[in-house]
Write a structure and sequence with these properties.
Blueprint: H1 3-38, H2 42-66, H3 77-88, E1 94-96, H4 112-125, E2 131-138, E3 142-148, H5 158-162, H6 176-188, E4 190-198, E5 201-208
Parallel strand pairs: 1-2
Antiparallel strand pairs: 2-3, 3-5, 4-5
Length: about 210
């Protein structure tokens, strides 16, 4: 099986899992409303409501990053900003500070929302003690994602995995996201670069590869 087929299977199974779980998670949220009307314990309601919101945010994020939902290039930056904001809100450890109405300097093509979200998740994972994720533009139609925070760093071997220098059999849960991100980058024609030049900064650059 080639990398293109592998990436497509990942998208299909992710879309199915997210689709199958969306209704049950939504049902929990509806159940909370019913409990509120019945006068149930407020602490219990708050706990269930928070858990349902967190689960829903994760589902939307994973669907965009790994599923077919992130393939559509018409998905707006505002939508990505909103979904990522809901995702990081769960523990208040990481914040984002960028303009969802910004001009990125190029016309996104197929797969851009997926790759952008994958980069945002990489930036989030690079902030072990929390911090801020910002987004800006550089020359040559390059999107710059910056993770700033104390001891900001990619997890061990993530950079090797992004460069396909880690064998599949050596992957673990900490590395699978970077490996899949690289698969998607290759499939949809995007180039990624990582700069770990500072102790408290990580820079990820995303641009569309030149089509020959």
């Amino acid at each position: 099986m080639n990398d293109q087929n592998t990436a497509f299977l990942i998208e299909l199974i992710t879309s199915k899992i997210c689709h199958d779980l969306t209704n049950p998670v939504g049902a929990v949220a509806n159940g909370v409303e019913i409990m509120e009307e019945m006068g149930a314990n407020n602490d219990v309601i708050s706990l269930i409501s928070l858990s349902a919101a967190q689960a829903g945010a994760k589902l939307k994020t994973l669907r965009l990053a790994y599923g077919l939902g992130g393939v559509d290039e018409s998905i707006k930056l505002e939508h990505i900003h909103q979904i990522f904001g809901e995702y990081i809100k769960r523990d208040n450890r990481v914040t984002q500070d960028w303009d969802p109405h910004m001009d990125i300097g190029f016309e996104p093509r197929r797969g851009f929302p997926k790759l952008f979200m994958c980069c945002l998740l990489l930036a989030c994972d690079a902030l072990p003690k929390g911090g801020v994720v910002t987004v800006g533009c550089e020359e040559n139609d390059t999107l710059l994602i910056k993770a700033e925070g104390t001891n900001a760093a990619l997890k061990e071997n993530v950079l090797n995995t992004l460069n396909f220098k880690t064998a599949v059999e050596d992957l673990d849960p900490n590395l699978v996201h970077s490996y899949i991100t690289k698969l998607f980058a290759n499939k949809y024609g995007y180039e990624m670069a990582v700069d770990e030049g500072s102790e408290n900064f990580i820079f990820l650059r995303l641009k569309q590869a030149v089509v020959s």
